[in-house]
Design goal:
The structure is a homodimer of 207-residue chains. Chain A folds into 2 domains: 2-79 and 197-204, Glutaredoxin (3-Layer(aba) Sandwich), CATH 3.40.30.10; 85-189, Up-down Bundle (Glutathione S-transferase Yfyf (Class Pi), Chain A, domain 2). Chain A is built from 7 helices and 5 strands. Helix content of chain A is 49%, strand content 9%. Chain A has a 5-stranded mixed β-sheet, with helices on one face. In chain A, strand 1, helix 1 and strand 2 form a beta-alpha-beta unit. The longest helix of chain A is centred in the middle third of the chain and has 30 residues, at 85-114. Chain A binds chain B through residues 49-50, 52, 62, 64-70, 72-73, 76-77, 85-86, 88-90, 92-93, 95-97, 99-101, 103-104, 134-135, 137-138, 141, and chain B through 49-50, 52, 62, 64-70, 72-73, 76-77, 85-86, 88-90, 92-93, 95-97, 99-101, 103-104, 134-135, 137-138, 141.
Chain lengths: 207, 207
């Protein structure tokens, strides 16, 4: 069975949990506690020198990191990723947008909040919030004319963007003004096999 | 003919110039001067609400943004991107690494340097340099045992990582201690059809 090195609160890890659940792929989960520095141990660095979760490990020892690359890998050949070269490029465009222009603001402020680091980072907060809202506005503009991000159907693009958008409020981002985003969040939640970020999926194991 | 909205100094834009040149795809180039705020004009925001170059526009009006998504699009079906699902996932793993763990440090310090913003950002410099060297160490570790990043041959993965690594010194990153990276930089430079970041490629046009 494949094994997901996970962190319960991580939206990036949740992306993988959600897709694997929707695809019906069984997996083991290991909780790596970032707050205790467990991605920086020698043991973990042997698996990912870039000290991050999520990480997927196969029984034969192969390892894949980077949440959106993991999504792409498992979605190939399924309904969650188009075979069309142009739609694939659009999926990647939005996934790179998510990692460069969305996650470093929206996910990071949420992380500071639940890890108790908001006070020590307060001088950076205003800029983080501004840029997070920039990303939300880009999404809102797109969703005003589209039900989903690519090809008018649910795909890994939506999973990648849903993961941190739906919990943006936990970092203080008010989504009240983003009507199109809120309608899209509901559409994602209503997909067959949807699981929430706190749902107990996979088989939890120690390592 | 396709049109690349470019910024001469941008490594992200250079990735696209380099691949299009190696593929022999003709293209127009428009210089968008980031330093003069030209990505923030209404006219440009109509094309990319996320106010960034590079951007590729087709004669029929289609637009694609995000450098690594553009690389992936043009490389599909060519020798610059494997058809193998596992190798494709590894390509994406490294391209997301580049955008999340490499570019925000190595490219940003270089940008501060040539745009005259180093002094005003000096309180952030030490952390940017540390994280940039973290990324370089991850690359060095991989390249100690591999000639290229994926599948033992030159691909868009190498183009994505070459773009800002080979000019890291312009931001003050000393590459002297990275022997494997230096050997890889030479291998990339020796690929057929290689063009430098300052080479005059494409057809420069106004817009």
């Amino acid at each position: 069975m494949i094994r997901l090195y996970d962190f319960w609160e991580s939206g990036n890890a949740y992306k993988v949990r959600l897709l694997l659940s929707q695809l019906g792929i069984p997996f083991e989960r290991v909780n790596i506690d970032i707050l205790k520095g467990e991605t920086r141990t020698e043991r973990f660095l042997q698996k990912n020198p870039n000290h991050r979760v999520p990480l997927v490990e196969w029984p034969d020892g192969r390892i894949l990191t980077e949440s959106n690359a993991i999504l792409f890998f498992f979605a190939q050949g399924t309904d969650y990723l188009s075979e069309d070269p142009w739609q694939r490029a659009q999926t990647l465009q939005w996934m790179f947008f998510e990692q460069y222009s969305h996650e470093p603001y929206i996910a990071v402020v949420r992380f500071w909040t639940f890890s108790g680091q908001l006070e020590s980072n307060k001088q950076f907060l205003a800029e983080k919030m501004d840029r997070g809202h920039d990303a939300l506005r880009v999404m809102e503009t797109h969703l005003e004319n589209n039900d989903f991000f690519v090809g008018n159907c649910y795909s890994i693009t939506d999973i990648a963007l849903y993961a941190y958008t739906h919990v943006a409020g936990e970092g203080g981002f008010d989504l009240g003004d983003y009507a199109a985003i809120n309608r899209w969040l509901d559409r994602v939640r209503n997909q067959p096999g949807h699981r929430t970020i706190t749902d107990d999926v996979g088989v939890v194991v120690d390592w």
